[in-house]
Amino acid sequence: MPTCRRKRVVLTEPSESLLQAAKSNPNKEVYYLQQTGEIFETYEAYAARMSFYRLKQFQCEVTGKSGLDYFQALESEQQEAQTMHSRFPEPLKASVLKAVQWQVVGRLDHLVEAVFDRFKDRYFMDEKVFVDAQGDKFYAKVVQVQPPKTNGESVCVPAENQASSSSVPSPPREIADDDAVQIHKIGGDLKIPTKEALVRDDPLKYLYKVQILEEQHEKSHEKGKAASKDKAKWSGSFMDVQCSVMSRDRLAFSKSILRRFIRDCVDRDAAVASPWTVKPVIAKHYGVDSVMPEETRKGVEDIKRGEIDKRKKIWEDKEGPPTKKQKKMTAAQEERVKALAVAAEKREREAREKAERQQKAKEEAERLAAEKKKKKPIRYPTEDLDVRLNDKEKKAGLKVKKPTPSKLGLPFGENQGTFEAFLTSWNFLVIYGQPLHLSTFTMDEFEHALRHSLVDPPCALLGEIHSTLIYNLRTVPFTRHSAVLSLLRLQDTLEEDHRVLGVSVDELAGAMADVGNNWERIPLRHTEMRDGWEEALIGCLKDHATLDNFPRLREVLTRLLFAPELHAEVSSSSSSSRVSSPAANNLSVQSSPSERYYALPPADRIDILTLMCNLAVSSKAIHSHMESCEEQLTALRKEKIEIGRQKKQYTEEMNSLAGETEVKELGTNDIVPDEDTTMHESSDLSDVPSEDGSETASTSSTRQKRSARQKDLRQKAHTQAHAKQRELARAQAASAKQALAEHRRLDEEVNKLERRLEAIEREFRKLLGAVRVKPLGKDRFHNRIWWFDGMGSASLLGSGGVVQYGTGRIFIQGPSEMDLELILKKEDDEYEARRQEEEGPEGMLAPSEWAQYAEPEELDEFLAWLNPKGVRELALKNSFIKWWGHIAPGMRKRVSDLNVSARLPEARRSTRTKSSGHDVSREPYMMWTNRRAVNSV
User: Fold this and answer.
1) Which residues pair with 215 in a beta bridge?
2) Which of these, 230, 431, 469, 633, has the minimum number of CB atoms within 10 Å of its CB?
3) What confidence tens digit (pLDDT) does each residue in 739-787 have?
4) Count of Cβ atoms closer than 10 Å to residue 576 Cβ
5) What's the rounded Cα separation, in Å, for the pair 79 and 719?
């Protein structure tokens, strides 16, 4: 059985309730683990047990291999058991199992030793053995076992007369059952002491008739053919031998394999002095008695009782001897006993006081350790919600309350669902602009385009977006007239005359019949301003949309294909009030989509684009683009690693050059003073001889000549030293100049690599956005912080390094449901109160609710509020620092563009009625052009 942490794995038994349910309902469905045969009532219990079995923490009990799962360990044990059972002598198994049955032995090793000693010289019928005869070893089979004879011991006599090259000897006689029972019966009984068993059943007195099977282990291979022919006559012959010349194969019978065999076949209870018992299945197979004899049972109970009494005696000795009945004492004895009792009581009191002092000292030490542990400083960064500002940090000016993000400033912020769909659509169109052949545009331009309601002039941005999506959806599989079929299925569940906006399903289906039927073949050319894209949009919705993927399908198609009556429209437009009557909402006149699209509410336009973007994700062009981005990301990762290696190499070379230059400068500074000193000393020496010469000029002319010659030599040496010094200085200057030039070159290379790394980071962000969009990070309350600029086909820098932006804002999304569940599991009661304190009621975001920071000053306050002692906010702050050079300029540029647009007060006015003083075509969203449009389309 495999073990886990040195304990055997016990299989799970079915519960009583499950057994009762199975009896009452035999067809009850359960979960069955085939490998172990276990049954589970619930999938959770089944999965938990399977997960436990798959852990790499099990050990094979036979081989000792660890780091396996349960099934690998079980397979290893089964393979080893098969190998062991195939090697262990089959005739020996029954006798060994009968010998170990009901044996009370503490350790398995002791039982193995006893069995091995009893059976190492005892052999059984049909057992394969080695026989030593006349200096050679033969492989033989025991065909007959003869118990000890009463008239004398047997002698090893080779049966040469029975061997014949032409005839096979007749098989030996069968041994009677009574004889077989008597073979090694006493010697194999472990209840009989070893010495007594040897006397009563000596293995040396047994005589074995063996048949030579084949020749084994020749002493020498150089004896020639004569020796081979001489030994071949033994093959198939019979001989009578004793155990002294017999032996077993060590691979078949040894202490290790015997131990494995016994451990695999027997078991033992955990109670004290429990006997070893053969497993019932194995006992039945080998004919071992599974019912304990009464005599054996009494003996086991006696042993168990003795073991229990022994342990009880040991326990009583530790507790102290039992009190004995005291005899009547004399007065002197009583006084003595009283004195001893007083002394004992005093000792006991002193011992108790000492124990109390020790207990108090221990408690004091524990208290001090606990206080020390409390005072132990927290290692930062840590969990954000565990970080609180102290008074010192508050006095230092750290922000306690987070700046409130704006919810109403979001595009279509009055409806969070509409904004999220709007954001998703804009992000998809910008990220996959390259495969869609669509130039980038800002979120503000996209918002204004969706609010555009004038038929003339038309909005080119809307036409390009819908046309590129229509071209893309032509490659996505669709069901012809799926929208009509879905509406007809809906009609079956509604009343007969059910109408939406005054139009029934039959009328709507009739209006759809002749519109956009060839949408997949209509040429929507860029040069023709995508003329006809509205009709193609109807055809696309007819074949791709259903009520399942587009719940507002009926309302949207009705608004695109029907218009209100002329008098109702005039009356509603001439009315001063904005309250619409039911009659004004009825659309009874069939119209064309090109006229009616601009009357659609922005929410319906967003729903259409959301559907088209969701369908376009599965197109081949988008999939190919994502795969290409993955390949480019891999290449960028490799390039980044290589650039890092080059940068490290250049930096090490620069440091080496700087170190060499410092060493040379130090050497020059040390040498120059020594030369100056030498020059001064030389000049002093040159003056000394001249004085001596003047003093002794009158006495000796020879000395004057010698002095003059020495002076000339000194001057010549000085000149040579100065020349060498100048040459050395020039060499050092040239070397320093060369080192400086090399240092500058390396510095330029490092700067180039750093600029390339920055470009790689920007490119990496663009490509990663096409694969998966990830937030910048999370704050302490698990609010997600998003920055969508510079991803996909958008770029953070334009030509000439001009700042570009997509949103120019930072978006805040409330915590996810999973994050809230984790917080609730921690049972943090202060979570809501802390959010009220630090975020305020207006700043608290519900799950998946959105808000934004549009002003750079607000973002500065938010960054000041972040606490880098928390794990999440530290990572978030590092992300802001990494991209701050693009976030802040983008926000400032957006504010500047909005201020320029705000100079025209009519720009924000409703465009349902034309304003004579404002030209809509000069709006930024109307001036947008698609530079990526393919000429053919």
Assistant:
1) 138
2) 230
3) 888 888 888 999 999 999 999 999 999 898 888 889 999 999 999 999 9
4) 4
5) 96
- The predicted structure's pLDDT at residue 350: 87
Check if the beta carbon of residue 154 is closer than 8 Å to that of residue 207. yes
Kindly report the CA angle at 89 between 83 and 91, in degrees rounded to 5?
Answer: 135
Two tokens, residue 268: 């033992």
Residue 260, both tokens = 């494995």
Which of helix, strand or coil describes residue 375? Answer: helix
Check: CB of residue 246 under 8 Å from CB of residue 120.
Answer: no
Q: Which sign does the torsion angle of CA 838, 843, 846, 850 carry?
A: negative
Mean pLDDT value of segment 235-241: 85
Q: Dihedral of CA 610/612/613/615: which sign? A: positive
Q: Alpha helix (H) ranges present in 474-504? A: 482-492
User: In sequence order, which residues have a C-beta less than 8 Å from that of residue 738 and are 6 or more positions away?
Assistant: none
Between these two residues, 442 and 294, which has the higher pLDDT value? 442
Which among 583, 517, 593, 582 has a CA at the least distance from the CA of 558? Answer: 593
The candidate with the shortest Cα–Cα distance to 534, out of 560, 514, 503, 569, is 560
Residue 469 CA to residue 813 CA, distance in Å, equals: 28
- Write down how long the chain is: 937
CA distances for 274 relative to 192, 299, 301, 306, angstroms: 19, 11, 9, 12
8 Å CB contact between 838 and 384: no
SS3 455: coil
d(CA 577, CA 595): 25
Rounded Cα distance between 716 and 710, Å, is 10
State the Cα torsion 11-17-21-23 to the nearest 10°: 70
The DSSP secondary-structure symbol of 103 reads: B
Question: CA–CA separation, 670 vs 117, rounded Å?
Answer: 89
Distance in angstroms (rounded) separating the CA atoms of residues 122 and 96: 11
Cβ within 8 Å of residue 215, ≥6 positions away: 136, 138, 139, 231, 232, 234, 235
In a 13 Å sphere around the CA of 339, the CA atoms on its Cβ side amount to 6
Q: What is the C-alpha to C-alpha distance for residues 100 and 98, in angstroms, rounded to an integer? A: 6
CA distance linking residue 380 with residue 365, whole number of Å: 28
Distance CA 536, CA 532 (A): 6
User: In sequence order, which residues have a C-beta less than 8 Å from that of residue 292 and are 6 or more positions away?
Assistant: 102, 275, 300
Report the 10 Å Cβ neighbour count for 29: 7
Question: Is residue 168 over pLDDT 50?
Answer: no
Of 876, 880, 884, 881, nearest in space to 777 by CA: 876
With a CB cutoff of 8 Å and minimum separation 6, the contacts of 611 are: 541, 544, 545, 549, 550
Q: Tell whether the model's pLDDT for residue 581 goes beyond 60.
A: no
What does the pLDDT average to over 446-461?
91
Q: Are strands 784-786 and 810-813 parallel, antiparallel or unpaired?
A: antiparallel
Question: Which pairs from 407-412 meet CB under 8 Å and 24+ separation?
Answer: 407/849, 407/850, 407/851, 407/852, 409/852, 409/854, 410/850, 410/851, 410/852, 411/443, 411/447, 412/447, 412/602, 412/603, 412/606
Structure tokens that stand for 830 in this block: 């202060």
C-alpha neighbours within 13 Å on the C-beta side of residue 137: 11
∠ CA 519-520-523, rounded to 5° = 80
Residue of 171, 244, 234, 174 lying closest to 207 (CA atoms): 244
Give how far Cα 915 sits from Cα of 572, 911, 918, 924, Å: 19, 8, 6, 18
d(CA 658, CA 679): 32
Question: pTM surpassing 0.70?
Answer: no
Residue 874 and residue 867: Cα distance in Å, rounded?
Answer: 7
